[in-house]
Amino acid sequence: MFKAKNFVIMALVAVAILMTVGSVLANESIIIQGSTTVLPIAQRAAEVFMENNSDVDISVRGGGSGAGIAALIDDACDIADASRFIKDSEVKTAVDKGIYPVPHRVAMDGIAIIINPSNKVNKLTLEQIRDIYTGKITNWNQVGGANKPIVIISRDSSSGTFEVFGELVLEGEKVVQSALLQASNGAVAGVVAETDGAIGYIGLGYLSNGVKAVEINGILPSVETVQNGTWPVARPLFMFTDGWPEGAAKSFINFLLSTAGQEIVSELGFVPLY
Q1: What are residue 79's DSSP bridge partners?
Q2: Topology of 27-108+236-267 in CATH?
Q3: DSSP 137-164
Q4: Where do runs of H (alpha helix) occur along the chain?
């Protein structure tokens, strides 16, 4: 005969299984991919968000703005980080696949022009920087420096920083073919820090004592000069979602736009929205 206590035990086991399954089903995951400029913001925000939301798991990876937007279009991520706005061609490809990218501005940033700290040059004009990157100026003695060849460090074409630099500084001209292309802000900063004659460009959050930021038209890159509009190479930073976000993705972006989220932006050396 089936005993009552066996029924109770089985019932308890069933409840435990249902609670476990319910817990697993309740967990939400978010995949974030894209810009290496936005990467530290996304990583730190994800850490804090998960500390306060144990039912959400967030995976963050870089790869560049183009890679992030491509992943969103291919439905391979939930949020695409981008240090530039989405291109018309990307929007068309997305819509053709049933994806409708929605931009969320999460921070502002300035692109700093950096050189090795041993270089005695302290300031350049936008025209001089453009002439360096297009090959018209090839030696530091042409801009008040030592008789030393200029080693040009640039981001690769999948980078949103590359796109914005090309628009705001190069005005559509092409980077000289001898430029050394790097896949991330950190890589650019690392090469410039180790190479006497190098010049590169990075987001504000990647500035350190290992490199020296140059003045442009007498202005240094900083949170203040980006906020007041005097730094000429500034841009917004975005996160894109497929349609208006829902669930955990919506909560995460709302957190990043909150006072606490914007404090993270500021702590990392970027420019908060307010």
Answers
A1: 32, 241
A2: D-Maltodextrin-Binding Protein; domain 2 (3.40.190)
A3: --BGGGGTS-S-B-EEEEE-TT-HHHHH
A4: 4-26, 39-52, 65-73, 88-96, 126-133, 160-168, 185-194, 223-227, 247-257, 259-267
- How many other β-carbons are positioned within 10 Å of the β-carbon of residue 197? 18
Q: Which H, E and C letters describe 64-83, residue by residue? A: CHHHHHHHHHCCCCCEEEEC
Any idea what DSSP says for residue 205?
G
Tell me if 182 sits within 8 A of 161, measured CB to CB. Answer: no
Q: Per residue in 30-81, pLDDT tens?
A: 999 999 999 999 999 999 999 999 999 999 999 999 999 999 999 999 999 9
For the entire predicted model, the pTM comes to 0.83
| Average pLDDT for 14-42 | 71
Q: Which fold has domain 110-234?
A: D-Maltodextrin-Binding Protein; domain 2 (3.40.190)
Spell out the domain ranges in the chain: 27-108+236-267, 110-234
**Cα–Cα distance measured from residue 12 to residue 18, given in angstroms and rounded to the nearest whole number:** 10
Taking Cα atoms as reference points, which of 35, 38, 34 lies closest to residue 205? Answer: 38
Q: Average of pLDDT values for 99-119?
A: 97
Compute the distance between CA of residue 213 and CA of residue 238 in angstroms, rounded to an integer. 24
